Amino acid sequence: MTNTILKAKDVSITFGGLKAVSEFNMDLKQGELLGLIGPNGAGKTTVFNMITGVYTPTTGEIILEDQKINGQQTEKIVEMGVARTFQNIRLFGYLSVLDNVKIGANLDMKYGILPGMFRTKSYWKEEREVTKRAMDLLKIFGLDGFKHYSAHSLPYGKQRKLEIARAMATNPKVLLLDEPAAGMNPTETEELMATIDLIRKNFNMTILLIEHDMKLVLGICERLMVLNYGQIISEGDPQEVINDPAVISAYLGTGSEEV
């Protein structure tokens, strides 16, 4: 695990004179699981939004492998190999579980309007291929038995799995998980940890994780970075980071959440 796949170099962003993230630097290694933690409002999701093209950094560069991605449209960044999930689950609720994952694979669909309208051989060939690929993912995530269920009818924990499966359908090089354990009970959180471990084993996936659940963070992350007021205040081994006085002070000083 030596090659850097995603790099942020002196990345900052300003909103109306307020610097939300200041000189953020990160080297995410191939196959690494890096946790990005910090108090509410620290700038974590803003970092995700800059990586995925929702925001364009005011200064600095974000580089995926050897390509600069800041300034690119979100769909282009997905094509280049960055996928994400959201703190608030965003599924196509009334579509089937299978169709939600097939939508994630849409980037690989090559047929045009006419083959789609007239159901040509090329249409059916691609549909069979993407359906098989989607079913393979659902099986990995233990959701194949729910393929015809509408997404909104699934229990919360399975909806979170489905969102991750849809992200994986884009064939990402880097997966960004934004508070995947938010709203989960302890059993669902344990299942999520197993799911993330499964992704890494099956896909050798590089993961950047935002999370407040410290049991999950310490159970799966190999390295931590801590943001506070948009600046990195600590990084390194998870146990050392959470015992860093600066980190403890940052959390206790907010009065809003526990480490």
How does the SSE layout of this entry go?
Elements: E1 4-15, E2 18-29, E3 33-37, H1 44-51, E4 59-64, E5 67-68, H2 74-80, E6 82-84, H3 97-104, H4 113-118, H5 121-140, H6 156-168, E7 174-178, H7 186-203, E8 206-210, H8 214-220, E9 223-228, E10 231-236, H9 238-242, H10 245-254
Parallel strand pairs: 3-8, 3-9, 6-7, 7-8
Antiparallel strand pairs: 1-2, 1-4, 4-5, 9-10
Description:
The protein has 259 residues and is of the alpha/beta class. The chain has helices at 44-51, 74-80, 97-104, 113-118, 121-140, 156-168, 186-203, 214-220, 238-242, 245-254, and strands spanning 4-15, 18-29, 33-37, 59-64, 67-68, 82-84, 174-178, 206-210, 223-228, 231-236. A 6-stranded mixed beta sheet has the order 6-7-8-3-9-10, with helices on both faces. Helix 3 packs across helix 5 (121-140) and helix 3 packs parallel to helix 6 (156-168). The two termini are 29 Å apart.
H/E series, N to C? EEEHEEHEHHHHEHEHEEHH
N-C termini distance? 29 Å
Taking all residues together, what is the mean pLDDT? 89
Strand content: 15-25%
Shape: globular
Share of residues in helices: 25-40%
The major sheet is characterized as:
6 strands, mixed
Notable features of this structure?
259 residues, alpha/beta, four-stranded antiparallel beta sheet, 10 strands
Concise synopsis of the structure shown:
This protein has helices at 44-51, 74-80, 97-104, 113-118, 121-140, 156-168, 186-203, 214-220, 238-242, 245-254, and strands at 4-15, 18-29, 33-37, 59-64, 67-68, 82-84, 174-178, 206-210, 223-228, 231-236. The chain is α/β, with parallel strands linked by helices and 259 residues long.
